[in-house]
Amino acid sequence: MGTPWDAETYDRTSQPQQDWAADVLSRLAGIEPGAAVLDVGCGTGRVTEHLARMVPAGRVLAIDASQDMVALARERLRGRAEVRCCDVLELDLDGELDVVFSNATLHWVGDHERMWRVLARALRPGGRLEAQCGGAGNIAGVREAIDAAAAEGAPALEGFSPWTFADPGETERLMRAAGFSEVRCWLTERPTFPQDPESFVRTSILAAHLERLPEREREPFVAAVMERVRLPLEYVRLNVSAVRGAGTG
Description:
By secondary structure, the chain is of the alpha/beta class. The chain has helices at residues 7-13, 15-26, 46-54, 67-77, 112-122, 140-153, 168-178, 197-205, 207-211, 215-228, and strands at residues 36-40, 59-64, 82-85, 97-103, 123-134, 180-192, 233-244.
């Protein structure tokens, strides 16, 4: 986490992320209106708006590691949620939450073992976690394009990946070790056709790669990737549903 983001472009091109979020939000049907909810990786706050409407008498805490994302989210939410600039691995909550929600974020976290412990600790016993992120096999074609473009003219990026695209089995193991119970993890294919493919790929996929390149190399790298990208983008979502067990400490 901590990658600098073009928040305004992300906000404009994030319809795919919003579509994926609808799947996760549907799993929260019937949530108590007074629940305390955490949105991990809130981005510009578009999905957080839906969460706030679901808990009109509750509390929504939204976190994101990008200051630019947080600034737009605060402007959009205007008091309907508390928005903090915070890396999820640095979150310090102890049994304060009824629900942890996350969409299109957790694959940006390198240490999933620690992450699941942090999120379990934030929930009260019996609290729920509903999340979705990139899973095993995610954006395979784009990753091949990135590797080819790096080998062709961006050696600083050879072997680099900012993502953890986990598989369901390993995720379930880590979550149970962290203190979750009733764990369900599964993959869903979501072929994606962004309306503005280059802006979407540049902003939602290549942000961390571009950060590592000198400015003069960024546009040629994006062009080399886009020459190889074909639609649909092969998104694979890792869905996670779990409850914090009574014995989590």
